[in-house]
Amino acid sequence: MLQPAKTKYRKAHKGRIHGKANVGNTLAYGSYGLKSLEPERVTARQIEAARRAIARHMKRQGRIWIRIFPDVPVSRKPAEVRMGSGKGTPEFWAVRVHPGRILFEIDGVPANIARESFELAAAKLPVKTKIVTRVAA
Fold first, then answer.
1. Are the beta carbons of 118 and 130 closer than 8 angstroms?
2. Cβ neighbours for 8, distance < 8 A, ≥ 6 positions apart
3. Could you give the 3-state DSSP secondary structure of residue 46?
4. In the chain, N or C terminus with fewer CB closer than 10 Å?
């Protein structure tokens, strides 16, 4: 699973996801992309599950690009622990996804296989998504 090799701080504030994506909102590598339509935190496990679904459906042909990286540590306190006594330990890694952000890109497969792959991947993600294609110029 994806996670940073090293971070400046061990724990992060929860924060809020405001506004639309102003970087990573256009296709950069592939011909087809999966774009988020709502703000949400996507975990490293969800990214990996979606990647596996895409790769399995494409039967390992073509190329996949993951355009998001989980760099926010999410901490949790154990069950049945009293209030106070500090912040919990980091449990997993997540990425804050803004609306309009491209999550995955695909190239080297027919349009119908790309569409079906993205539909399988979208079922693994907590955000509503849309499939976008490169406009032939």
1. no
2. none
3. helix
4. C
19 secondary structure, DSSP code? S
- The two structure tokens encoding residue 94: 């997540």
- Provide CB contacts within 8 A for 44, sequence distance 6+: 1, 2, 3, 70, 92, 93, 94
CA 91, chain centre distance (Å): 17
pLDDT digits (tens, 9 = 90+) for 10-26: 999 999 999 999 999 99
- Structural domains of the chain sorted by starting position, each given as residue range(s) with its CATH number in brackets: 32-74+91-133 (3.90.1170.10)
Residue 137: pLDDT over 70? no
Tell me how far apart the alpha carbons of residues 39 and 96 are, in angstroms, rounded to a whole number: 7
